[in-house]
């Protein structure tokens, strides 16, 4: 009975909030756009658990311009680099002998990650339409379902916790090995940073295992050569 009453309460609240209101509550809950606009660079250090193996991972982002993911596995170091114009991949533990330029379709999908604000659904300037698609439950948490259309025409379904208004899950289509596939990412372990923003320190992408970030730094100077395959 109590569960039924609680679910009814969520449904009633969903009916009284518009899609724009849910989105704005989410933005406010994770620190507000003013604080997010102050974030120019991000460095996340952590690891990925995959098939019982711990893989070291470091993400370095210059917001809207470039991103580098360094990976340490089996005693070897590799990386992926994405910029607004080109990208490279070097994975020696996958048999690669030298960096390889990314094909256009793979690069396009990766470039969506360059905007740190867009990844956390806080930049309205990048969104053309948002629609409320009822409610659902993710990891036992009632969530609002927001169908978000970005300016580039891509769409994603976002699940916003009805209590915290944090983004719990995002689903969208992406090019994976030349084919359109549904990609779902869940977020957890939300931590408020000294800069005033709230970010998830754990995420899970289907088929990629859990990614846990142990530390994060904002607005540190990052050398341009970080995003060049020759490091020069």
Secondary-structure topology with pairs:
Elements: H1 2-16, H2 19-29, H3 33-37, E1 41-50, E2 53-62, E3 66-73, E4 76-83, E5 87-90, E6 100-101, H4 104-111, H5 116-119, E7 127-138, E8 141-150, E9 155-161, E10 167-176, E11 179-192, E12 198-205, E13 209-218
Antiparallel strand pairs: 1-2, 1-13, 2-3, 3-4, 4-5, 5-6, 7-8, 8-9, 9-10, 10-11, 11-12, 12-13
User: Quick one: biggest sheet?
Assistant: 13 strands, antiparallel
**Proportion of beta-strand residues:** over 45%
| Secondary-structure element string | HHHEEEEEEHHEEEEEEE
Structural class: alpha+beta
Strand order of the largest sheet: 6-5-4-3-2-1-13-12-11-10-9-8-7
CATH architecture: Clam
End-to-end separation in angstroms reads: 65 Å
Question: Keywords for this structure?
Answer:
alpha+beta, single chain, 13-stranded antiparallel beta sheet, 232 residues, outer membrane lipoprotein receptor (LolB), chain A, 5 helices
Give a structural overview.
With 232 residues, the protein is of the alpha+beta class. It has a single domain, classed as Lipoprotein localisation LolA/LolB/LppX (outer membrane lipoprotein receptor (LolB), chain A, Clam), CATH 2.50.20.10. It is 19% helix and 49% strand. It has 5 helices and 13 strands. Strand 2 and strand 3 form a beta hairpin. The longest helix has 15 residues, at 2-16. The radius of gyration is 19 Å and the shape is globular.
